[in-house]
Amino acid sequence: MLRFLTAGESHGQALVSTVEGLPAGLAIDQDALARDLRRRQLGYGRGRRMQIEMDTAEILSGVRKGHTLGSPVAMLIRNRDWKNWQQTMHVSPEAPAEATGARRAPVTRPRPGHADLAGALKYDRGDMRDILERASARETAARVAAGALARQFLAALDIHVVSHVFTLGAVSLGDPLVVTYEQIAAIDDEAALHCVDDTVQQQMIEAIDAARAAGDTLGGAFEVVVRGLPPGLGSYVQWDRKLDGRLAQAVMSIPAIKAVGIGKGVGVASVPGSQVHDEIVLPAAGDEGRIMGVSRPTNRAGGLEGGVTNGEDLRITGYMKPISTLMKPLRSVDLQTMQESPAAIERSDVCAVPAAAVVAEAMVAFVLADAVLERFGADTLDDIKAAISRAEARVQQRFHPAPAEA
Ligand SMILES: Cc1cc2nc3c(=O)[nH]c(=O)nc-3n(C[C@H](O)[C@H](O)[C@H](O)COP(=O)(O)O)c2cc1C
Ligand SMILES: C=C(O[C@@H]1CC(C(=O)O)=C[C@@H](OP(=O)(O)O)[C@H]1O)C(=O)O
């Protein structure tokens, strides 16, 4: 079983990510890890915090001479902003004499849509900073570090995870299923909104500018696409083994994600079956089909049938609500005075859909890595590769039987 836990407050000293269950013998590419962390910080519409942070993950354990040992990998991501928050975020009852930064007033006016009110009710905290510090999506940097290791494990098996943004507020590219894996893989890391279409991307930028000018915020939708998955990951035999369910939980757990789709997603509800299901045909001459000797002209199922991978690209969409901190705040109640009062204003993003897409890549990579280990599980990378080859040979033999002896 592959698992990870994170720790850390948004303006505390650091984030910690601990990953357990990776096989031994995986080469760790620290540049690729840094690239994933950087991609999460990019995207048009983010706030000033992203100019302060330059996320890097320091590997503290589990890796020696560039390779995993099979033991837990602990990683540390320091918050550069911490120096501005020591007076507010100190761990001791009193701020130490050397603490830097301003002493901030308690947060008492919950922001509709953030975790402030629900968290205060649950944990019985008067200052809602005690809630928002951990509810903050700052934590997703630690998820991306964990996901980066999973992604490197998958890449060693020639499985690749990419994403793109296809909707931002009212601007949309339309059906993401028409966008190819190759188009998504070609998106430049520095692209403003990680959209495959430059004209649509420009309209998205303008929508964000307009929202910012109005003191408002915007959400949107992204798609994660995975190429190279072996068929047979996940299972239909129990509810908690269905891979669609496991992926949906992982993506839905990202702050502000309110809906998840597989393949055609919610579109399946409004059209007949003939426009939903992917026919199974014999491959055209010269096209072997992927592994199974059959071909699927369409992939509306998004690579999953019965909660099991079918050898096609995995396609999963995530829908993000607009950021809940509005510079023109919504109505709220000051929980200290119990007077109606505009919601608190914190420094904030106007839009973070591209960042959420990168986090979703990490979460999807993690769930898939776990599913690969479950099916081909072993303690070393070489054993896993051998198990995958064996499974491929078995499927190949069944669907391409050798010609009978004359
Ligand atoms: C990458 C990313 C950045 C975010 N930035 C902000 C932000 O700057 N301000 C804010 O109010 N919410 C932001 N959010 C959303 C909140 O974290 C989220 O709405 C809150 O934790 C409540 O969780 P829920 O929306 O899932 O119910 C961000 C989310 C993500 C994924
Ligand atoms: C720090 C990150 O995102 C933060 C997520 C967030 C929230 O409420 O979720 C609020 C903002 O925090 P701050 O007030 O410090 O600017 C974002 O910047 C990050 O993505 O690394």
From TrEMBL:
EC number of the protein: 4.2.3.5
GO annotation, biological process: amino acid biosynthetic process; aromatic amino acid family biosynthetic process; chorismate biosynthetic process
Any one GO molecular-function label of the UniProt entry: FMN binding
Cofactor(s) the record lists: FMNH2
Main EC class the enzyme belongs to: lyase
Superkingdom assignment: Bacteria
Role played: This reaction introduces a second double bond into the aromatic ring system.
SUPFAM superfamilies according to UniProt: Chorismate synthase, AroC
Protein's pathway: Metabolic intermediate biosynthesis; chorismate biosynthesis; chorismate from D-erythrose 4-phosphate and phosphoenolpyruvate: step 7/7
PROSITE patterns: CHORISMATE_SYNTHASE_1 (PS00787), CHORISMATE_SYNTHASE_2 (PS00788), CHORISMATE_SYNTHASE_3 (PS00789)
Residue positions binding NADP(+): 40, 46
Record protein name field: Chorismate synthase
Gene name of the encoded protein: aroF_2
